[in-house]
Amino acid sequence: MAISFNAATLALLDGRNYAVLATINPDGSPHTSAMWIGRDGDDLLFSTVEGRVKHRNMLRDPRVSVTVWDSADPEISVDLRGRVSMTPDPERLLHIQLSHKYDADPGEDRPGAHRVIVRMAVEKVAGHAA
């Protein structure tokens, strides 16, 4: 069951703050990736390319953890845990949208790459902004 975010968590998620995604490798060890994030209601959104380690890990095991910290004050952070689902994003719309949020060039994906939108249904929130 998804949860609702408080004002401090919403400020972190909606600001130009980076996040770190943790997924589970096949051997049980963690894999982490820094990333851009967005939000749709109480779901966290991010983009990846099919075949990357995080993509393969989330296909096998949809349980993830995401930490977001305040770029102005890294002591303020929030940890989110939940499960993800993925849908194709052939036009790279989310990736481009997030590049505008972070005021960055979205760059080009490698030839033949297929982007997906990752939607995280958050089940638990903890941290200094929670």
Task: Report on the architecture of this protein.
It is a single chain. This protein is of the alpha+beta class and 130 residues long. Helix content is 19%, strand content 41%. The protein contains 3 helices and 7 strands. It has helices spanning 7-14, 53-60, 93-101, and strands at residues 19-24, 30-35, 38-40, 43-49, 63-69, 77-88, 115-126. It has a 7-stranded antiparallel sheet, sandwiched between helices. A hairpin with a 7-residue loop joins strand 5 and strand 6 (77-88). It starts with 6 loop residues before the first helix and ends with a strand. The model has no long low-confidence stretch (mean pLDDT 94).
Features:
130 residues; alpha+beta; 7-stranded antiparallel beta sheet
Itemize the secondary structure elements and their pairings.
Layout: H1 7-14, E1 19-24, E2 30-35, E3 38-40, E4 43-49, H2 53-60, E5 63-69, E6 77-88, H3 93-101, E7 115-126
Antiparallel strand pairs: 1-2, 1-5, 3-4, 4-7, 5-6, 6-7
Short summary:
The chain is 19% helix and 41% strand.
